């Protein structure tokens, strides 16, 4: 059974994607109890007991709590596999906190709850690939690229939601009913993603298939470029990495 220290949004998404009973603790939020009620398993009041009983442990607490959690677990973590989903926490920090454990750094995103997620795993954690493949695609990256992975995959569902909101609002301002605008855009978004996949990620080809010289799509693309779409994503990446 997998144990979760912390049962926030990302930990909950993983647990739902795996779809099995869990052991869980939290800092008093009640989320662990809610997760166990949904999936089965047991809520525990002590992290050390969770670690002793779990087959593998997922760290889903706040990053700043790492040393406190590790100290509370103590020798119970000896020989255990500890998987961190803590943002901005390096392998070196994890190894320092859990020197007697096998530590793995993973950066998943919330679509793992639907088994359509993306998880990036730092090199050295390949033994966790099969576990995360159960909830979506997995990419093994050098440790040096994990911060960029966080800034381009883990946060991306929020960015896509914001883009969807902006596009839907534009449609409503243009005269579409809100419910219809939402339905139309989400169907278009899903189809466009499938088209990009079918084209092997060739974004230029997909754009050219829609864009006639001097036509309406060309004018719309020019407006997006003029208003800094690429710059916005570049600055968002730097903001995430810079913390």
Automatic annotation (TrEMBL):
Top EC class, one word: oxidoreductase
Residues in Pyrroline-5-carboxylate reductase catalytic N-terminal domain copies: 2-86
UniProt xrefs under InterPro entries: 6-PGluconate_DH-like_C_sf (IPR008927), NAD(P)-bd_dom_sf (IPR036291), P5C_Rdtase_cat_N (IPR028939), P5CR_dimer (IPR029036), Pyrroline-COOH_reductase (IPR000304)
Transmembrane residue ranges: none
Binding site for NADP(+): 5-10
GO CC aspect terms: cytoplasm
Gene3D superfamilies cross-referenced by the UniProt entry: NAD(P)-binding Rossmann-like Domain, ProC C-terminal domain-like
NADP listed as a keyword: yes
Database matches in HAMAP family: P5C_reductase
Primary role: Catalyzes the reduction of 1-pyrroline-5-carboxylate (PCA) to L-proline.
Stated family: Belongs to the pyrroline-5-carboxylate reductase family.
Name this protein carries in UniProt: Pyrroline-5-carboxylate reductase
Natural source organism: Capillimicrobium parvum
Lineage: Bacteria, Bacillati, Actinomycetota, Thermoleophilia, Solirubrobacterales
């Amino acid at each position: 059974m997998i144990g979760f220290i912390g049962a926030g949004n990302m930990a909950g998404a993983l647990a739902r994607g795996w779809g099995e009973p869990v052991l869980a603790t939290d800092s008093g939020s009640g989320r662990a109890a809610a997760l166990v009620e949904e999936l089965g398993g047991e809520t525990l009041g002590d992290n050390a007991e969770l670690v002793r009983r779990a087959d593998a442990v997922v760290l889903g607490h706040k990053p700043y709590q790492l040393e406190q959690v590790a100290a509370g677990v103590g020798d119970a973590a000896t020989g255990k596999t500890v998987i961190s989903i803590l943002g901005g926490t390096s392998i070196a920090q994890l190894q320092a906190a859990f020197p007697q454990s096998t530590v793995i750094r993973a950066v998943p995103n919330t679509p793992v709850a639907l088994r359509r997620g993306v998880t990036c795993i730092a090199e050295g954690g390949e033994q966790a690939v099969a576990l995360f493949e159960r909830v979506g695609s997995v990419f093994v990256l050098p440790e040096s690229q994990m911060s960029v992975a966080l800034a381009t995959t883990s946060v991306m569902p929020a960015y896509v939601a914001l883009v969807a909101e902006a596009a839907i609002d534009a449609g409503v301002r243009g005269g579409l009913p809100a419910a219809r605008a939402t339905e139309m855009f989400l169907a278009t978004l899903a189809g466009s993603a499938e088209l990009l996949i079918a084209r092997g990620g060739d974004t230029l080809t997909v754009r050219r298939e829609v864009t006639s010289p001097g036509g309406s799509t060309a004018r719309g693309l020019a407006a997006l470029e003029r208003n800094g779409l690429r710059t916005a994503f570049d600055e968002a990446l730097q903001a995430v990495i810079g913390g």
